[in-house]
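Now for today's protein.

===
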Amino acid sequence: MNSDGSGQTQLTFNTANDMHPDWQPIIARPVGGVATPVDKLSILAPYLALIGLVGAVTVAFATKRRRNL
């Protein structure tokens, strides 16, 4: 095709409407079973935080109970 839109040439020859394609954005996704590398700490961080919270609550409860005895 020329810059002014003249001289169009069809590049494919099939039953689809190739002269007026419907362009769609390409979404990047992993192909097949390929896993993307992940930082192990980012996976464990919520669990470590929960363990720390449970530990802190347990210590606070035990300390308060000991004072009441």
In short: The chain is about 40% helix and 0% strand. The chain has a mean pLDDT of 77. The two ends are 90 Å apart (CA to CA).
